[in-house]
Amino acid sequence: MMILTGAILLVLCTITYHDFMYRAVYWICFPLLALLLGIYKIKAVGFAGLFTDMMFTGGFLLVQLLVLWLYFYIKYRKSVNLTDGYLGWGDILFLLAVCFYLSPVNYIMFYVVSLIVSISYALIARSLVKNGEQTIPLAGIQALLFVFLLIAEKLMQLNFFQDTGYLL
Description:
Elements: H1 2-22, H2 29-76, H3 89-98, H4 104-128, H5 138-155
Helix pairs in contact: 1-2, 1-5, 2-3, 3-5, 4-5
Keywords: Membrane, Transferase, Transmembrane, Transmembrane helix
Protein name: Phosphoglycerol transferase MdoB-like AlkP superfamily enzyme
Transmembrane segments: 24-42, 54-74, 86-103, 110-129, 135-152
């Protein structure tokens, strides 16, 4: 499991570096990350646990993308391609890859916290650099936060791939 964790951290650091430096990430990083996270989760909770959580987290992501699309559809009164200037494919693929690891409750918490951190980053960056880059390295920020999450999980012996502690 240590080698698997190391490989996951390496892919996450690669995503972070490339997104911050170039605002582009090699596409192979996302399926590789999903595969590694899926293997880790299958070893921990089995295929049934992975499949069940994927249905919930993937459904949540799909609903979020649909709500975002509806927002822009209503705002501009025409169909809008979300990946055309609003949200990068890397951002979507990263959120999809993380579905392979996090439980539904932890996925929603990670999603919300990472968006708050990303907005804070954007506001601070724009106030410091007036004519700088207008894009936000969302996948890079989320990958960095996921690195911290995995390290905290290992050091504090937490469990972010099951919701057993939250259920009544």
